[in-house]
Amino acid sequence: MTSRQDNGSQHGGYLDMELLRFTTAGSVDDGKSTLIGRLLYDSKAIFDDQMKSIEKASTRLGGEEVNLALVTDGLRSEREQGITIDVAYRYFATPKRKFIIADTPGHVEYTRNMVTGASSANVALILVDGRNGVLEQTRRHSFIASLLHIKHIVLCVNKMDLVDFKQEEYEQIKKDYIDNVASKLNVKDIRFVPVSAKLGDNIVDKSQNMSWYTGPTLLELLETIEIVNDKNIDEARLPVQYVVRPQNDKFHDYRGYAGRVAGGVFQKGDSVTALPSGKTSKIKSIEIAEQALDIAYPPLSITMTLEDDIDVSRGNMIVSSESLPQQSQDITAMVCWLSAKPMAMGQRYLVKHTTHDLKCLITNIVYKLNINTLDLNYEEKSVGLNDIAKIQLKTTEPLLFDTYANNRITGSFIIIEEGTNNTVGACMIE
User: Which domains are present in the chain?
Assistant: First the structure.
């Protein structure tokens, strides 16, 4: 066990975890896009030509100051409405860490977009307007972050300039959140930062207006917060996407299994099991573009060869023989419904899980969640757009899965409507 950890740590990526993914959330007009713009601007992550474009757009929209929200609000319809309706992704880096930001919508009608943006995040930044305090959307987005097993929540109390930078306003919001929201979440690490995204207070530089706050700035917190790795390195998973058979003189007997590593660590010589057949073998080689590797980890896309000739095809999974995933046709999962057309009990849907495509029936709606009160409604059997519910379904073939808490990739799937091919549900397996 120790040798696997030591070997893995020398190869970066999976165990070094130098890339932090975070998402922003909050109510409409809490200043999410402005905060991201300020973070990028003050950390020198905006190029000169981008800045000139933002300045021109700000002038065209009639603003007297540069509108940093335009850094992320790239869609014309967003600029016209003044709200974020899509998920805008941005990348930036500091000397200490690399970052990917998902700026998600605040409006209740776009909850599904928030779920999409937060699904791969390590940290959730939830903004609260210092004038309004904790609102319905604050509770909604906090619960979604908890549901998605995001390990860290940072509550940014924004627009402190509009409450005269008063400490008592900040402390009251902090107490309200701890007493009425945090106590109901499955999140152990919650931080609080008072900020003014418009003026830049406590975003990158310490605020001169809030000397009473002695904690880190937002950027300092993001650079130092621990990225919790909740995947066991022995739970190696390779969903097979393609079987490589060149069938030429140079590679006459070559048979490789291509896919993206979805969990754990594979090493040359490891004992692996091909599922669902259950046949075992050892790893003969691991390759990326004909370059041989001794080790592979998420999110590398690799081609693997085995010492034995085993029948493996797309949709199968190669896993560590020491730690097999669960197999079942009866699945219980939390679902965020993405379609205006309500979920239909007994209707046949398509399921896409890793590289495996199959069909299913919704057999039961266990409960529907009232996100505003966090109450569970066991009587309501209607699930519509943006609703979150616990459901049970039966698949036509066994699913090879881990719980979402252990592996976000093998523990999640999407539901697709037959005929239209519309994605109607995002599911997390319990």
Answer: 18-224 (3.40.50.300), 237-320 (2.40.30.10), 326-429 (2.40.30.10)
